[in-house]
Write a structure and sequence with these properties.
Helices cover 73% and strands 0% of the residues. By secondary structure, it is an all-alpha fold. The chain is elongated.
Amino acid sequence: MAKVPIKKRPRNLDLALLRQYNLPLPGKVSIFHRISGAGLFLCLPLILWLFSASLTSPESFALFKAVFAAWPAKVVMAGLIWAYVHHFCAGIRFLLLDLHIGIEKEAARKSAGIVFAVSIPLTLLLLGVLL
C-alpha cells in the first residue's frame, strides 16, 4: 500500500488565542479601525435618537443632560468619541496608503504610531470640551 503524503494544513486562528500573537503596530491600528467602525455603525441608531431627543424640547434636553451627568453614560460617550476620532485618523492613514504614500515598512509603523499619538490626546481634548 502506497503512503499518502501528509499535507501541512493551514492553522485555524482561535480568536480566544489571539493574544498569543504579537501584532505589529500597523496591525493593531487596522483591528481597532475595524472595531471602531463596527461600533459606530451599531451605535448609530442610538446616537441619532439621542440627538433627536435632545433637540425636540427644552424638557427633553434637560433629561438628556441629567442622564449624561452620570459616570456610566460618560464612559459610553468617551468610548464613542474615541471610536470616532480613532476611526477618522486611521481612515486618513488608510487613504494615504491607498495612494501608495507611506507603504514602506518603517513609514507604515511610523504612521500607525501617529494615529495613536493623535487620536488619544484628541479624544481627551474632546472629552474635556464636551463633558
